[in-house]
Amino acid sequence: MSAAIRDINSSPPAMNPWVIAPIVAMAAFMEVLDTTIANVALPHIAGSLATSIDQSTWVLTSYLVSNAIVLPLNGFFSAAFGRKRYFMGCMALFTISSLMCGLAPNFGALIVCRIFQGLGGGGLQPGAQAILRDIFPPEKIGAAMATYGIVVVVAPVLGPLLGGFITDNFTWRWNFLINVPIGILTLFLLSLLLHDNPDHRRIKLSETKIDYLGFGLLAVGLASLQIMLDRGENADWFASPIIRTLAVMAAVGILGALWWEWRHKHPIVNFRMLKDVKNFGFATFGMFMFGSILYGSTTLLPLLVQRMFGYDARQAGMVLAPGGVVVFCLMPVVGFLIPRIATRWLISFGVFWNVFALYMMSRLSLQANFETLAMCRVVQGLGLAFLFVPFNTAAFAFVPKQKLADASGIINLARNIGGSVGISLSVSFVKQASQVHQNYLVGAVTNLNSAYRSNLHALTGAFVRGGMALSAASRAAQAEVYNTVGRQAHMLAYVDAFRVLAIVFLFVLPIAVVLKTPSFKSAPVIVE
Asked: Which of 45, 265, 389, 465 has the greatest count of CB atoms below 10 A from its CB?
C-alpha cells in the first residue's frame, strides 16, 4: 500500500486535555456498555420479535463479530479519513444504528442493525484510547490510561445491571435508544473540541493500493473465531460440523493474515509492531489474559448466583456493582502511582489480589450470603485496577505517535478476543465439570450408604407428615436427593472453574517481569 502524505499547515489550538478526555471516554463507554447491556433482555427480545431464546443470542454474536473485524483496522481508517473524521463517523454510525435497533420491526432487521452498530462501535474503543494517549503529556499518561480503564472495566459490569433495570421498568428497546441522545451530544462536542494532529500520518485512498487480501483473511478469520466462541457451547463444540468448519476457517484466516501482513511492505494491520516496538508484544498478550479473566469471572459469578442462589438479574448485578465502584475509585490512584512505581510491581500487586479474589470464590458454598459474594468482587476490583492501567501504559510507552491508532486497535482486539475465549471456555468448563462431579456424587447415592438411607428416611417422613401418601412421599424424597446432588455438582464445578482461573492468572507474572518500565520525562506534545 503506497501512500501519499498530505501536508497540513494549520495547527489546532491548544486545549486542556481534561476537556476532551470525558467526551471521548463517554463515546467508548457507550460502545463497551452495548456489549453486555442487552444480555439480560434476550428473553424479552425473543418474545417480542417471535423468535427462540437460542436464536436471540445472535443479537450479541452479530455485534461482537462486526466489532472484532473493525478493531484492528483502526490505524488504516484513521490515516485514510483523518482521526477526527473517522472517530466522528464511527460515533454517528453507532448512534444511527442504535436508533434503528430500538425501532427494529422484526428480528432480521434487528440483527442487521446490530451489525452496523458493531461496525460503528469498533472504531470508538481504539480511537478513544489513541486520542487519550496522544493529548496527554508523558508524565500524565497514567492518568490518561486510568480514564480509559474506568470505561473498559466498569462498563461491562454496569451493562447487565442497567439493562435489567431498563428492561423491567420500560422496554428492551430502550437498551438501544438510550444511546441516541448521548450520541448526539457527544457528536456535537467532538465537532467543536476535537482536532486532527498535524503530525499524524495521512494517506490518499485514490493513490493507495489497498491490501485487500490481508483484509479479507483477517475478516474471515476473526468472524469465524468470534462465531465459533459464541455459539460453540450451544452446538456442543467440535461434535458439530459447523463448529469444526468455523475452527478451520478461523485458523486459516488468522494465521494466513498474520503471515501475509508480516511480510507485506504496507500492511493494512501492522502486526510487526508486536515484535518491533518495545513492550508492545508482551503487553498485548497480558491484555489478552486480562480480558480472559475479567470477562470469564464476570460471566461466571452472575451465573452462579442466579442458578445456585436464585438471584434475579438485578440482584446478580448488585453482586458485581461493588467491584465496579472499587475500580472507579482506584483508577485515578493507580494513574498517580504509574510515574512513581515500577510497572512490574504494580502488575504483580494486581495479579496477587486477583488470584486471592478467585481463591475466595473457589471457597464459596451454597450457604454463601450476599455480603460474601460482593466482597469477592471488591477484592477482585482492587486487583483489576492495578492491571489495566500499567499494562496499557507499558504497551504505549514506546509506540511512536504515528502508530498509536494501529497499536490501539491491536491491543483492544487482543482484550476483546481474550474476553470471548474466557467466557466460552469458562462456561464450557462448568458444564463439563458438573457432569464429572455428578457422576462421582451419584455413586454415593445407594442403599449401601447409611447416610443416604438415613437422609431418605427423614425426607420421606417429613413428606408423609405433610400429608403425602407413603409411595408419593418416597418418590418426592428421592427427587429431592437427586436435586441436591445436582446442585452440589454444579456448585463444585463453579468452584473448580474459579480455581483454574486463579492458576492460569499466575502466568501473567512472568510478563510483568519482562516489561520495561517507561520513562515519564516531560516532552513537547501537541495538545488538541
From this structure: 389
Is 520 part of a structural domain of the chain? no
Q: What gap in Å lies between CA 492 and CA 363, rounded to an integer?
A: 10
Q: Rounded to an integer, what distance in angstroms lies between the CA atom of residue 132 and that of residue 141?
A: 8
Tell me, yes or no, whether 273 and 337 share the same domain: yes
What's the domain range around 457?
A: 436-492
Q: Indicate whether 233 and 160 sit together in one domain.
A: no
11-20, 137-146, 232-241, 494-503: which has the highest mean pLDDT? Answer: 494-503
Q: What's the mean pLDDT when you consider all of the chain?
A: 81
Decide: 122 and 71 in contact? Cβ < 8 Å. Answer: yes
Considering the domain boundaries, does residue 448 fall inside one?
Answer: yes
pTM summary value: 0.78
Give the domain CATH number at 136.
Answer: 1.20.1250.20
| Domain presence at residue 308 | yes
Helix (H, G, I), strand (E, B) or coil at 209: coil
Q: How far apart are CA 269 and CA 262, in angstroms?
A: 9
Q: Do residues 260 and 180 share a domain? A: no
State in Å, rounded, how far the first CA of the chain is from the last one: 29
Under a CB-based contact definition with an 8 Å cutoff, are residues 37 and 175 in contact?
Answer: yes
User: Treating both helix axes as pointing N-terminal to C-terminal, what angle do 141-169 and 124-135 enclose, rounded to 10 degrees?
Assistant: 150
C-alpha cell at 280: 508492545
> Which residues, at least 6 apart from 74, have a Cβ–Cβ distance to it below 8 Å?
122, 123, 126, 127, 130, 405, 406, 408, 409, 412
Write the pLDDT tens digit of every residue in 1-13.
434 333 333 344 4
User: What tens digit of pLDDT does each residue of 105-134 get?
Assistant: 998 899 999 999 989 988 888 888 888 877
Q: What's the DSSP call for residue 233?
A: T
CA distance 51 to 58: 11
Query: Is there a single domain that holds both residue 325 and residue 428?
Result: yes
Crossing angle of helices 280-308 and 313-337, in 10° steps, is 150
Amino acid at residue number 297: S
The three three-digit cell numbers of residue 448, written as one number: 449401601
**Pairwise pLDDT comparison (164 vs 376), residue with the higher score:** 376
In a domain, 506, yes or no: yes
